[in-house]
Specification:
globular, single chain, 3-stranded mixed sheet, 53% helix, Rad_response_metalloprotease, IrrE_HExxH, 9 helices, 194 residues, ImmA/IrrE family metallo-endopeptidase, 7% strand, Arc Repressor Mutant, subunit A
Length: 194
């Protein structure tokens, strides 16, 4: 399945000139894991795995050269889940143009701190939507329901939801904590009020 069948146009538009490349990345059958490395590559962003203490610093070197050098440095000792989220979040900063935004404001620390926090929230939201798109979350949940011999029409209790989260998170290559957050954000198991 092509990524353009997974992500909506509003989200894909955030990639600007790279939208077409991202849209045409293929997700293999029976695979629910978004390939953030392939997306970074399509956006001309280099990934460097290093033993740094704090991973995820995106560098946009446009001030120092004629070429926009975009690098995401990832702590190679972090878990695969954290590495994936780091790449997705830093891609969010790059795609959303946060570096340029910071440079336009004055040097007052209170403004920079507020802008930094706002940008961090936006980049994390972008990352969550990137690695756990709504359509794919629903698809992996349906697959997990079948895998666990549950029924889509049954009442799901806490233990059932926990089992679904564990199986689904593993299928998507994300942590159970991240997947749990995403299904709560999407309101997947919220009873509708008539």
């Amino acid at each position: 399945m092509l990524y353009k069948k997974i992500f909506n146009d509003e989200f894909l538009n955030k990639f600007g000139d790279y939208k077409e490349k991202i849209s045409n990345i293929i997700l293999d059958d029976n695979c629910y894991e978004i390939d953030v490395e392939k997306i970074a590559n399509s956006c001309e962003v280099s990934l460097k795995y290093d033993g740094i203490e704090s991973s995820g610093f995106g560098i946009n070197n446009e001030v120092h050269s004629d070429y926009d050098q975009k690098i995401i440095i990832v702590n190679k000792f972090n878990s695969d889940y954290i590495q994936k989220f780091t790449i997705a979040s830093e891609l969010g900063h790059i795609v959303l143009g946060h570096k340029k935004t910071l440079d336009r404001f004055c040097d007052k620390p209170e403004y920079k701190d507020t802008i930094y926090k706002m940008n961090k929230i936006l980049a994390n939201k972008f990352a969550i939507e990137l690695i756990m798109p709504k359509k794919l979350v629903k698809e992996v949940l349906n697959n997990s329901i079948n895998q666990l011999n549950y029924s889509i029409s049954q009442n799901f209790y806490d233990d059932d939801i926990h089992s679904l989260v564990v199986v689904s998170a593993k299928s998507m290559g994300v942590s159970t904590q991240a997947f749990n957050y995403r299904i709560k954000d999407l309101g997947v198991f919220v009873d509708s009020i008539n």
